[in-house]
Design brief:
heterodimer; A: alpha/beta; Rossmann fold; 2 domains; 6-stranded mixed β-sheet; 4-stranded antiparallel β-sheet; 8 helices; about 30% strand; globular; B: about 290 residues; mainly alpha; about 75% helix
């Protein structure tokens, strides 16, 4: 279980996160919503150790993550699909996957499993990743993170700019992962996608979680979406 | 001597220059490409390679070939170690800030120079070639060692290319070069990669120096020309582009050889500098570089 407790973080003198707390349990999808600049991406970067926290604690199954150097965080079992995919564009699909596999010493079985989730990538293994379509790039970004065999998967707006069929594929994949016990933290702006996947929704405003609600009885017209997301 | 053989001689001299320059410049280009650090101390790593080669060959007993072979192994390892230490103690602490690392490597270059002056002295000293072979062509005789330098440099460059394109270490370096934050998110220890790349770049400069030091002499100020020419090469080829570096080294090396033989070495340097200026004006990213 991933637990964030009262964390403060920011960039230089600019504090973005102010006492943010969040819990993501195994086999659950926790969606994080909020307006631009609320601190969603900063929260994910703080979990990954890419920016330092100045207060609070981040633990994975009781193990503190803040004491680890950034490159040790994925080894602890956290996979990250950053906003904009951030693929290694000049490397091939196969090489991007290899980067994911080498970190935890996972082998062919993991690679085969990941490629079975995204068969289209198998046809493009020797293709440079920057030449893939947007949807294929997103598949690769998720596949690369899954090569870590993470117990927690962080995704930052994975459906951004994708066509509906691709969004459906990604949603189905995430629900499959959820059924295997992976804890998923999904930063997302699309209300329909959130309602289709979330177990809980955390609404972030001004760097802290203002409200966490279970995804029962919510609809696109619910007041929380208007209040915290503006849709 | 007729024009034809004279031109051939000039081209052969240019090939030796190009081979050594390519080795040195690839080191500089690797460091900039992966770490985004403009290493002003690169010429001093070259100088350290030559000076240490003199110490190794001077104090090692046995035939010159054995001492020279030992220098070829010891110098890049020692200079690479010094570079890795410099990276860890200085560049890492500066968080690889581009401006700060330029100032820091200028400081490093003076430290290395003065250290060499203190322990090696101000004199230029020769290092014996590992073998003395003269190849007799129909028009003139030519040093077999110089031809060996060209082939040795080609072999080392091929090894570097294989390292970068065919090995796991190369894949890690390329991933780090492309996006260091994402590389960290996949468990790559970027600090370790940077130290290794800095060591590799310095090691290549040291190997180049060991190869050239039987032709030139080891001197504590000998790092200036290789640094200037390496910058010329990587700017023309495109900062961070290995292919561009190799092509530019060939162009600069050959033209330097030909112009030096037919006219003067000073004119060769002037024309190379002019070429850099033209590249910076008309194609600032270099011939093979990509626009930022």
């Amino acid at each position: 279980m991933l637990e964030l407790s009262n964390i403060n973080a920011g960039y230089g003198n600019v504090q973005v996160l102010r006492g943010l707390s969040l819990t993501a349990g195994p086999g659950q999808v926790t969606c994080v919503m909020g307006r631009n600049g609320a601190g969603k991406t900063t929260m994910l970067r703080a979990i990954m150790g890419q920016i330092s926290t100045t207060a609070g604690s981040i633990t994975l199954s009781g193990t503190p993550l803040q004491t680890l150097p950034a490159h040790e965080v994925p080894r602890a079992g956290i996979g990250y699909v950053p906003q904009g995919r951030r693929l290694f564009g000049e490397l091939t699909v196969a090489q991007n996957i290899e980067i994911g596999l080498m970190t935890r010493g996972k082998g062919r079985a993991t690679r085969d499993y990941v490629l079975s989730l995204f068969p289209r990538l198998r046809e493009r293994l020797s293709q440079r990743s920057s030449t893939l379509s947007g949807g294929e790039q997103q598949m690769l970004a998720i596949a690369r993170a899954l090569c870590l065999e993470p117990s927690v998967l962080l995704l930052d707006e994975p459906t951004e700019g994708l066509q509906p069929s691709m969004i459906t594929l990604i949603r189905d994949t995430l629900l499959t992962l959820k059924s295997t016990g992976v804890a998923i933290v999904l930063v997302e702006q699309r209300v329909d996608a959130v309602l289709a996947m979330a177990d809980h929704i955390a609404f972030v405003t001004a760097g802290s979680v203002a409200e966490t609600v279970p995804n029962t009885g919510l609809s696109t017209d619910s007041a929380q979406f208007k209040t915290y997301v503006g849709v | 001597m007729d024009f034809g053989p004279f031109l051939l001689l000039a081209l052969m001299e240019g090939m030796v220059m190009a081979a050594v320059l390519a080795l040195t410049a690839v080191g500089l280009s690797l460091v900039f490409g992966v770490m985004r650090v403009v290493n002003v101390a690169h010429g001093e790593f070259f100088m350290l390679g030559a000076v240490i080669a003199w110490f190794v060959t001077h104090f090692m007993p046995g035939p010159p070939a054995v001492a020279f072979a030992a220098a070829l192994v010891i110098c890049p390892l020692l200079v690479g170690g010094i570079a890795a230490l410099s990276d860890t103690l200085i560049l890492k602490r500066l968080n690889y800030d581009p401006e700060a690392t330029i100032v820091a490597t200028i400081g490093l270059s003076y430290i290395f120079q003065q250290t060499a002056l203190t322990f090696y002295g101000p004199d230029a000293r020769p290092v014996l070639a590992p073998f003395d072979l003269r190849i007799q062509l129909p028009w003139f005789g030519y040093s077999g060692y110089k031809i060996a330098v060209v082939f040795a440099a080609l072999a080392i460059l091929l090894a570097v290319w294989l390292l970068m394109t065919r090995t796991r270490a190369g894949l890690i370096m390329r991933a780090t070069q492309l996006d260091r934050n994402t590389a960290r998110a996949f468990g790559i220890n970027v600090d370790r990669v940077y130290a290794a790349v800095f060591a590799l770049g310095a090691g290549l400069a040291a190997v180049a120096a060991v190869l050239i030091v039987p032709i030139q002499q080891a001197h504590y100020l000998m790092g200036h020309d290789p640094l200037l020419l390496s910058f010329i090469v990587v700017i023309i080829g495109g900062l961070g582009s290995l292919r561009g570096t190799l092509v530019a080294a060939l162009v600069i090396g050959l033209s330097d050889g030909v112009i030096s033989v037919f006219f003067s070495p000073t004119l060769a340097k002037i024309l190379a500098t002019l070429l850099v200026a033209m590249v910076l004006v008309f194609r600032p990213q270099g011939l093979f570089g990509t626009k930022p």
